[in-house]
Structure formats: C-alpha cells, structure tokens
Amino acid sequence: MADQPFAAPAPKRRLAKRWLLGAILFSAGVSLLALLVGKATIGATAEVTELDSGVSFMARVDTGATVSSLHYERLEISGDDGQPQNNVGKIARVLIENRAGEQAWIESRIVDHATIRNAVDSQDRYYLRLRLRCRGVEKETLVTLSDRSRLGYAMLIGRDFLSGDFVVDVDRDNPETL
To answer: First vs last Cα of the chain: how many Å apart?
Structure first.
C-alpha cells in the first residue's frame, strides 16, 4: 500500500497552530483597541519613574492589586509616636532604591495606614501619594510602602495607576519593544 502524499496534520499539531494563531490575533486586537481608545499598551513589566526623585524602577504589572506598591530602604516620620495609626497626616521621608542601586530620599504625607496579616506575622504599611511616569503617562497615585527586598521587582503597579490610561497585554513583556 502506497503512502498517502498529503496526510492531514496530527490533531495535537493542528490544535497548537490554532492556539498560536488565536494568541497572535488576540494580541493584535488588544493593541488595535488600545490605539483606537488612546490608551498605551503595557506588558507584564514596565519601566516606571518616580518623578520627584527621578529614580526609575522595572515594575511588575499586577491587575489584581488595587494599589501600587514600592520597596523602601528606610522610613523616617516627623513626630512618630510609635503608633502607626497616629502617623496618618504626618510627613514621611522615605529612602527608595531600585535594583541597580540608585537611591533617593522622597517626602510625602502619609494618607492612610493598614496592618497586613498573614499566617506568620503582621506588617504595618503606610500609603503615600507619589507622582509616577510610565510610557509617557504621568499620574499622582496612591502607593503603599512595603519590604519587597525578597521579591523580583522593587515596584508593583496596580489598577489605581493603570485605570483609564493603559491596556495590559501580557504577551508584550519586553519594555524595550513597547
């Protein structure tokens, strides 16, 4: 019996091709939508600059996070009485540092406080308003200070910053190509 010259591709290969085509079309559609509505397309990571200091961070984009989060090295609060809830409204002086070791002190008023609890311990976090820039978009946004030293990114960008100005396309992960 002779071999058939034009055998149909295996079902798995056909499924993989369809998935790849679907992913390409989806990514193109998201980019086109962003252009039509005037929003910047952002990937899973992006370069973000804290405007008062000029320090830039490679940030992880997290659409599941309500507010953005920033790693800090040191925190000084004017008139700190040791009770975090009493520091709301006071001026915080914060030493920030990106992964390249670039440091700067920034100052901002503490606008809120939260105690985050997990199975191991609890952590007090302060919320500040900071001016950030990403992909040409500048915004004042709420940022929580946290110890992100064990995490891969010193900054996390949440929905508060993304809302109204960005479309997230995780297939576009390389900030240089955006």
So the answer is: 55
d(CA 62, CA 35): 22
> Nearest Cα to 70, choosing from 163, 134, 120, 132?
132
Q: How far is CA 19 from CA 10, 14, 16, 24, 71, in A?
A: 14, 9, 5, 9, 38
Report phi then psi at 174, rounded to 5.
-95, 110
d(CA 109, CA 78): 10
Regions of the chain where pLDDT drops below 70: 1-12, 22-23, 25-37, 172-178
Q: Which amino acid, one-letter code, is at 107?
A: E
